[in-house]
Amino acid sequence: IETGLKIKTALRKCEPVHVEILNYRKDGVSFWNQLSISPVFDNNGNVIQFIGVQNNITEQKIAAQKIAAQKLLEDEARWKFAIEGAGVGIWDWDLTTNIVFYSSRWKQMLGYSNDEVGNGLEELTKRVHPEDLPNVLKNVEDHQCGASNESSIEYRLLCKDNSWKWILARGLVINRDKNGN
What we know:
The protein has helices at residues 2-12, 58-86, 104-109, 122-125, 133-144; strands at residues 17-24, 30-41, 47-56, 91-94, 99-102, 150-158, 164-172. A 3-stranded antiparallel β-sheet has the order 1-2-3, sandwiched between helices. The chain has a two-stranded antiparallel sheet with strand order 4-5. A two-stranded antiparallel ribbon has the order 6-7. The protein is of the alpha+beta class. The relative contact order is 0.07. The two termini are 28 Å apart. A hairpin with a 5-residue loop joins strand 2 (30-41) and strand 3 (47-56). The chain has 5 helices and 7 strands. The radius of gyration is 27 Å and the shape is elongated.
């Protein structure tokens, strides 16, 4: 719809337009076209026709997607290397699925192996010192509802050997839905 509007607006203004359009063949297979339309004027400046050129750019689009995917994998590997090199533990909570990712380092800091910690929020909350839990939950709630853009709190976590370890946790909301949640 946006592309169609762009074309109509340009043609009404008698301006050239260059767009990429995803099309579908009769058999349902998609392909990409690059479309260029330019007005042709007579000696008096009136538009007498439009000339359009259309090129199939599916292979270029696929190649660009492969390059982007490879770059994303490389970026992820760099981030993972940087995080692991920093020696920090990370947890990432996806509220839409209620699944929490705990990094290997987070688990190791508390004396656990990878298979000893699940992927629920309770893996964190059941390890927070009872005196610290109300503040931790309030901090998370304030952060989720937008009362704070960034979170920083110190609290104690229970280690596998039943000792307590002080943790400085910092966080931020990565994404919000259209309602701000």
